[in-house]
């Protein structure tokens, strides 16, 4: 005999009713981004407030970052290495003033 309350659907659990990030390939949460970059979540928040961080997607209270957008942001921050400047010895300046006499 069938159950009249059985709708044929699995019961909703907190995990199934929230955004299932495992099925959102290509996105990461704020804490994941912070971990990958080696910074705190607070730093990510500060970058967002200052407009310095990667673009984000906000759905309700959930903040997501598209992995491709994060890669683009990282590339935009890349800097070409400059050759180190030669450091002038403090003694070289003293030597010239001493020789002038």
Number of helices: 5
Radius of gyration: 28 Å
H-E order: HEHHEEHH
Uncertain segments are: 9-17
CATH topology of the domain at 19-78: Arc Repressor Mutant, subunit A
Numbering strands along the chain, what is their spatial order in the largest sheet?
1-3-2
Quickly name the level 1 CATH class of the domain at 19-78: Mainly Alpha
Shape, please?
Answer: elongated
CATH architecture of the domain at 19-78: Orthogonal Bundle
Class of secondary structure makeup: alpha+beta
The percent of residues in helical segments reads 40-55%
Annotated CATH homologous superfamily of the domain at 19-78: Winged helix-like DNA-binding domain superfamily/Winged helix DNA-binding domain
> How confident is the prediction overall: mean pLDDT?
77
- Specify the biggest β-sheet: 3 strands, antiparallel
Could you please describe the fold and organization of this structure?
- By secondary structure, the protein is an alpha+beta fold.
- It has a domain at 19-78: Winged helix-like DNA-binding domain superfamily/Winged helix DNA-binding domain (Arc Repressor Mutant, subunit A, Orthogonal Bundle).
- It has 5 helices and 3 strands.
- The protein has helices at 14-17, 30-37, 41-50, 67-76, 90-100, and strands at residues 27-29, 57-59, 62-66.
- The protein has a 3-stranded antiparallel sheet.
- Strand 2 and strand 3 form a beta hairpin.
- The longest helix has 11 residues, at 90-100.
- The protein is elongated, with a radius of gyration of 28 Å.
- The model is unreliable at 9-17 (pLDDT under 50).
């Amino acid at each position: 005999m069938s159950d009249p309350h059985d709708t044929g659907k699995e019961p909703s659990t907190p995990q199934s009713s929230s955004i299932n990030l495992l099925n959102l390939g290509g996105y990461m949460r704020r804490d994941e981004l912070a971990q990958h970059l080696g910074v705190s979540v607070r730093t990510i928040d500060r970058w967002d407030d200052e407009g310095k961080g990667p673009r984000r997607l906000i759905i309700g209270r959930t903040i997501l970052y598209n992995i491709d957008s994060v890669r683009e942001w990282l590339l935009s921050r890349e800097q070409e290495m400059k050759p180190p400047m030669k450091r002038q010895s403090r003694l070289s300046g003293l030597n010239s003033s001493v020789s002038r006499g």
